[in-house]
Write a structure and sequence with these properties.
- It is a single chain.
- The chain has 116 residues and is α+β, with helices and mostly antiparallel strands.
- It contains two helices and five strands; from the N terminus they run βαββαββ.
- The chain is globular.
Length: 116
């Protein structure tokens, strides 16, 4: 068996299956790291050697315990298993996808566009 350190963030929205997620995190001996953040180690088979395979196994494990709805999101950060990225930290959505940042437009960037 292999182990990997994982930082997980979650956004289940109103009415999400927090009980299922909290039960899953508790089973993993996860440590609370602030609002909607946790850290744990995940054990998996020695035959898993790619990030894609790890995400598939992690997603299946989560879905076995948590009832996800449209709009729910789970994001993880961990070291890459892929040989070409060995040792690099990477992040991926396991459930859901990226959405527009709430801070967009608050910065001091200026656009250099010409409207015709």
């Amino acid at each position: 068996m292999k182990k990997i350190a994982i930082w997980l963030t979650y956004d289940l929205g109103v009415g999400g299956d927090f009980q299922g997620l909290y039960s899953w995190l508790d089973d993993k001996d996860a440590i609370e790291c602030g609002n909607n953040n946790a850290y744990f180690t995940f054990s998996f088979s020695d035959t898993i050697n790619s990030d894609t395979q790890l995400l598939e196994i992690l997603k299946k494990d989560l879905e076995g315990k948590v009832s996800f709805k449209a709009g729910n999101r789970i994001y993880i950060v961990r070291k890459s298993l892929d040989a070409s990225k060995a040792g690099k930290s990477i992040g991926s959505f396991v459930i859901g996808k990226r959405k527009a940042s709430p801070w967009e437009g608050y910065g001091t960037k200026t656009e250099n566009t010409i409207d015709e």
